[in-house]
Each structure stands twice: as structure tokens, then as C-alpha cells.
Amino acid sequence: MKIATFNINGIKARMPRLVEWLEETQPDVACLQELKSSDETMPTAEIEAAGYGMLYHGQKGFNGVAILARGSEPVEIQRGLAGEAEDEQSRYLEAEVLGLRIASIYLPNGNPQPGPKFDYKLRWMKRLRERAKALLEAEIPTILAGDYNVIPHDDDVWDPRAMASDALMQPDSRDAYFRMLGDGWTDAIRSRHPAGGIWTFWDYQAGGWQRDHGFRIDHLLLSPAVADRLVEAGVDKDHRGREKASDHAPTWAVLR
Hints:
Layout: E1 2-7, H1 11-25, E2 29-33, H2 45-49, E3 52-57, E4 65-70, E5 75-79, E6 92-97, E7 100-106, H3 116-137, E8 142-147, H4 171-183, E9 186-187, H5 188-192, E10 201-202, E11 214-215, E12 218-222, H6 224-227, E13 230-235, E14 251-255
Parallel strand pairs: 1-2, 7-8
Antiparallel strand pairs: 1-14, 2-4, 3-4, 5-6, 6-7, 8-12, 9-12, 10-11, 13-14
Helix pairs in contact: 3-4
């Protein structure tokens, strides 16, 4: 079983690349982020034609997450996180898919920091951890997949100095991420590529892709029962270099 996460950076603008990727790699489950489309205008026909059921939590012009399942319909469990009723940003969607609990996550960026956006990021990560702990306590086989907007290690970025002041690399951001790992989650990519040097994002500006100036912010966190089934994990890097591609590359894990 192949589970993937892909920040599509605008589902309408990237639909040809999305369908192309689905057809070429055929993930069993695909978590999408940054849809930038409301529920009312979400394009679904092309995805259905590619053989995927789709569950989505959209937001006009911003954010938005979805879960796709090949030959199946994801069953919604929860949208949004508890703990901040006034939070209307579409960043969390959880479903039952093919015998697993899957969450598609688009964690706040947090820039500029310090400031209210960074404070919101840290609160959001605390709320995510609470939901994640509940899933662990219930012993539900779960994958938390998405764009975490956290660079966990210095070897997860082309040049740590270039990102030192960014919200993605702040000690508080990293601490929140590692606290989740300490609760019992496994970082799929890190477990299979412990030396680092694996990027999932390359900025459109400053020749990021052409110079391979990237970093890793798209993660798949596996609960213990799922981590025991992990075979391989990687990144579909070549899809980042295609015409009108997202600035992220699809990131995936294969399970027994």
C-alpha cells in the first residue's frame, strides 16, 4: 500500500500535473494540501475520472486539504482541530481509508516571526499533538501526512544559515515536532533516509529548483502499528521539475 502527501499549491492551476502524477505513480491514498479552492468550486471530475474518491475541506483562495483514495471513498471522521473555536482555517481533515486512519495536514507557516502568525503556528501544533495523542491512546493505525512547515534537522535543508531566521527552523517549531515524535510517531522519510539530504520543497524564486536549494517540510508520521509495516519512503522529485509544477514534490511511504 502506497500512501502519499502532496502540497499541490492550487488544485485548479495544477490539475494536469496532479492527474499525471496519480496516473503515473498510482498511490492508494493521496493527501493534498493548499488546494486554494472553496468546497463549492472544488474540481472533482478529473480526479474521479482518474479512479479516485475524494474527500475535501476547502477554503476560498487559501489553505484547503483533501484525501484521495484509489477505487474507494474516504469516510470522514473529523475536519479541523479542537481547542480554538474561532479558527476557521481549513488545515486538518481526518478519514478512514482502506483500513487506516489518515489525516491530511497543512500546518501554518508562521512567518514572520516573532509575531501573531508564529504564535498561531505553535498553538496549532499543540492542538495537533493533542489529537495525535488521542489517536495513539486509542491504538488506531494512523498516518498523519502533510505539509508541516517544519524543517526538523539542519541536514533537512540545503543551507541551514539561509533559513536560520525562518519560522520553519525556529527551536520552538522543532521542539513541537519532536515532542510528537517522542509521543510515539515515526517520521517515515527520516527512518529510511537517516543521513538527510532529502528535499520536498524548492522555492520558485532565486533559482531554488535549478540550484537544488531545497528543504524537507512534507512529512508522513506513522503510529507504531503502521511503522511496523513500513517498507520504503521517498520523494517523487522529478515531478517538481515539470512544466507549471507545484513548488513541492509528492512524498510517499510504502507499507506491507
